[in-house]
Amino acid sequence: MSSSVVTEQVSLAVSTVVFALRPHPRTGETTLWLPLVRRIREPYEGRWALPGGPLKAHQDLAASARETLADTTGLEPAHLEQLYSFGAVDRSPADRVVSIVYWALVRPDEDARTTETPNVEWFVADEVPQLAFDHNEIVRHALDRLRAKITYSPIALAFVPDEFTLAELRGVHEAVLGRCLDPANFRRQVLAGGTVEPTGTHLTGTSHRPPALYRAAPREQEKSR
Amino acid sequence: MSSSVVTEQVSLAVSTVVFALRPHPRTGETTLWLPLVRRIREPYEGRWALPGGPLKAHQDLAASARETLADTTGLEPAHLEQLYSFGAVDRSPADRVVSIVYWALVRPDEDARTTETPNVEWFVADEVPQLAFDHNEIVRHALDRLRAKITYSPIALAFVPDEFTLAELRGVHEAVLGRCLDPANFRRQVLAGGTVEPTGTHLTGTSHRPPALYRAAPREQEKSR
């Protein structure tokens, strides 16, 4: 090495785990999906990886995450927050890269705007193949965080439209947790939590007893951290 | 610029917010303190800042945080976890620096081993002066996280010795939250949470009704994330 100034080089990348709810291809039950990008160069050429790229010097962290997402999937999810930074010395075989990882939650109306892009494919989150780098660990970390956070925060609201029924909201919880919840208990807990409120209207055109519609309560929102 | 290769330079630093519980200098009530380091070069020469430094290429993120802490304060806290990464484009006046921030919680026995170091001083966490860079925002973020997390996780256990009374544990909650808690309610909630268990012994040499001692329950620990 010709200069001691540049020997301590660390590169910085921003990647994103994007979760959307879609039917499972075999069971048909709603479950978590995420988009992956096929790598077209070494290391790990041909492997699937999280959407991401090097941080540009003029770009904020979240802006970098948003740009990659828009470029690869066409998605512009309202809910984007920082997950964790991964920096193990040996996580990339070629160089030292620290990845700051964001996670995004996609509403059905946002998901409908997903664009088809070559080398991008959606996978069931619990069934991803062997990924590049430590990206399996990152996906696992994001799933753990989501499944923990849904039990103590109103984060499930990021998966529903502005107005929703309690059955829809319960469906989100069930899809994320992968198990059924008792409707009466769920209803009681959600209403006691104070994070949703009735709109005063009902779902139209369904049954003779149309379910009430709810919206997020106008309180201090969960900070996007 | 002579080369397009090096124009997108981003530097990476690791800093740590260290919380310990000590008596407030005016009220005497137990409250949160943190150590700060006086900057001895520009930018912000003379201002106080969080302990930290550039990430070395051969060093993991947490190892970098631990090294700086040991060098500045002599502390080797058992509880160290990643807080957040701060990367606003303009957070450093001279260059582009992304700081990955850890936070550490210090037990009384660990705090007793704090070493005196020139240019390091401890401050009441809610009364820090104007700091260098965006470090006031980082301290605020860490305080918010700690005060939120103590309400839904057993993180208070990181501030007590291996064996403790419920009054000691309540004192930690009160010091962190800055308000009094009802002893009977607190006792009921903690015991219902299942995160502590009685040791079967009592505090000795105190009163005619010595309080029972507790320890962390041997369950899956809160992951250090």
Automatic annotation (TrEMBL), chains A, B:
Stretches assigned to the Nudix hydrolase domain: 11-147
Entry-linked Gene3D superfamilies: Nucleoside Triphosphate Pyrophosphohydrolase, Winged helix-like DNA-binding domain superfamily/Winged helix DNA-binding domain
The organism's place on the tree of life at top rank: Bacteria
Region annotation Disordered: where it falls in the sequence: 197-225
Transmembrane segments: none
Pfam families assigned: NUDIX, WHD_NrtR
Name of this chain's protein: NUDIX domain-containing protein
InterPro entries named among the record's database cross-references: NUDIX_hydrolase-like_dom_sf, NUDIX_hydrolase_dom, WH-like_DNA-bd_sf, WH_DNA-bd_sf, WHD_NrtR
